[in-house]
Here is the input.
Amino acid sequence: MTRTMRKSILLGIGFSVIVCAFIYWYQLSPTMTSSFITDIPSGQDDGGSLQEEPHHLAVESLRKGSYPGSDIRIEETLSPGSTYNRYLTSYQSEGLKIYALLTVPKGNRPEDGWPAIIFNHGYIPPAEYRTTERYIAYVDGLARSGYIVFRPDYRGHGSSEGVPSGAYGSNAYTVDVLNAVASMKKYKDTDADKIGMWGHSMGGHITLRNMVVSKDVKVGVIWAGVVGSYPDLLYNWRRGASIRPTIPGGARRWRDELLRQYGTPEQNPSFWDSISATAYLKDISGPIQLHHGTADVTVPLEFSQKLDERMKQVGKLSELFTYEGDDHNLSKKL
Here is the structure.
């Protein structure tokens, strides 16, 4: 369902659409006993097959991994919000210490714990990234609505350990978030059966990959997400000149390396399906809600439109909200 909303309406609803989506879909989501999807990949063509050792970007490779997370450690107590407490925390991902912002509602804890949202931020130059900065209004809106919010840095960002690898030529950031989910499940105040995910831009790409790997993510909300297939990323994405990634050169060469080794999507569709989360939507762990501005020049609206169509084609619940004249950050929405 595509809806174009005027500014006056947006100012009135704020985060209510998103919050209602989390509440409604949490109630619908069944309790699942297995954390990871291990079925034969639904993204394979009848005539194609994965290699015995799948490519490191393959969804099947992610599914074979182990993501135990760790206990969440409180590193520093920060100034509280109006209805929630704030903490600088850390957790473990592949032996790396990853920092994360954590908010926890004040008041009486529900019997089963608070519902939680893993908050996946978009691209910010890793050297400029600070755990407690950016997305302030977004986190506040969700935290005030009664959710635990857990916003991981990703490796190599700010003070987090590791090397920033980029999100598209490596699964490293996706792995960091899978470990964040496992860590949040262990947190004493969390309802482990009510964990959702919110992602912006690059964080939308990470959210979608998590949801075709882990059954623990019951719902996803994605703003201006890089949610196209890998062929879409190759052919239908021309980022603006203002985007200047400060990540190792190898992390930016994934397009050329994959084309050289595996051929084009037309020549080798099975391979390109194997690394695209969009080829595994039959296995997605829950419904998704997409938000995208029509004037976004950073990530094309077409990505969200295509994902919405693909979800419905395989019988999965999806909503698409478009915002007339709004940009990549949906600045008019807040």
User: Anything to note?
Assistant: Residues 2-31+41-323 form a domain with the Rossmann fold fold (CATH 3.40.50.1820). The radius of gyration is 19 Å. Strands lie at 2-5, 73-78, 84-93, 96-105, 114-120, 148-152, 190-200, 217-223, 288-293, 318-323. The chain has ten helices and ten strands.
